[in-house]
Amino acid sequence: MLSYDWIKILALCAAVVVVWVLLFTTLAPRATRGQTFEIYVYPNVRMGTFGDLGSLHGDNALTYEALSYDVLDMSANTTLTDDTVNTVLSAHFAAGQGDVVFISSERYDSGQKDENDNAVMTSDLEQFLASYVYNCTWLGGDAEYPLTASEENANTQDYLTACAAYLSQYYTGDITADSAEQDRQAIETDFRARADGDNRYKKESQILAGLEKEYGRIENLRVAYNNVVGYLGDGTLSVTEVDLTVRSETDVNGDGTVNDSDTVQKKGYFSFDLSDVPGIDYMFTTSRVTDENGAWKGDSVNMIVLNTRLQEEALRYEQVTFLDYIVKECARRQELES
After folding, report:
1. Which of 38, 101, 148, 272 has the fewest CB atoms lying closer than 10 Å?
2. 41: closest CA among 8, 77, 69?
3. Looking at residue 134, what DSSP letter applies?
4. Which residue from 274, 317, 231 is spatially nearest to 102, judged by alpha carbons?
């Protein structure tokens, strides 16, 4: 009889655990696509540690915010190899995953020869774009978008220009001015619409607390945007230019048809060059560029902003604050080492 009572007690305990797990799974907030930040480190690039997700949030960060409060999950794929990279990226991109790729733009001998028996040079960046250029956001400003794409495709829009347009919805004046004033009613209206159905915001008190964080998120993005534009202006950052071979919409070879053999060369701008960021070696290095002792250097490391069409509009620009964080964190680490 005693043993039977123990069985009933154990069964009851097990049932309670199952119910608790189900409740936790059902009620806990689930990260949407936009609330997940995924980093890919291409082969031949090494990334230093960023710490855990909590340390990158404004409430917990030591000095500045890298990702907003609304990023609930972060992952870094740092184990890609030449054998696995295409399999992993193809699967993940097809599922709408990915936010940034760190990759080298240093050119090297591909091992192939052209028609004049000259070595054909390439780079990891060029190889990546040859396969995944449609997964990358455009960073070419007013330059002609080189690919065939519908005007409705958000990737044809310059990323920073789109970011400025997004911010302008929430400020009454010039977003570049230090005195820029937020349109808090516009922010609240959009936040309440976004919070609808989010388990974190069931009570009005929770919504109001979240709204305060939302004001901060948008202001932090404005500051980061202006910083990144400034880095591009003073040479800390640049946008890498690559030559792309793209299909022509006209008969180039004169055979009377338009097909894949009709190609033209165009300029492409799809990545931020981090080479001149002070202290970049403390966070990113590549085997493509080494010093006299064979140590990897940060020269030629680029950051690609991946296709964000599947993300919520409000969270399309986490990469801007992340890029600002990289520049600031590199400077901080360099100062600590000096």
Report:
1. 148
2. 77
3. G
4. 274
User: Which span out of 32-46, 48-62, 167-181 was modeled with the highest average pLDDT?
Assistant: 167-181
CB under 8 A, 24+ apart: contacts of 201-205: none
Handedness of CA 214, 333, 236, 275 (dihedral sign): negative
Tokens describing residue 316:
């399309």
- Tell me the whole-structure pTM to 2 decimals: 0.86
Beta strand 36-41 pairing with 263-273: unpaired
Q: Strand ranges (DSSP E) for 147-283?
A: 238-247, 263-273
| DSSP 3-state of 228 | helix
Per-residue DSSP letters for 68-96?
-TT--EEEEE----TTTHHHHHHHHHHTT
Residue 179 tokens read as 């005195």
Other residues' Cβ atoms within 10 Å of the Cβ of residue 68: 24
Of 185, 184, 187, 182, the C-alpha closest to 171 is 182
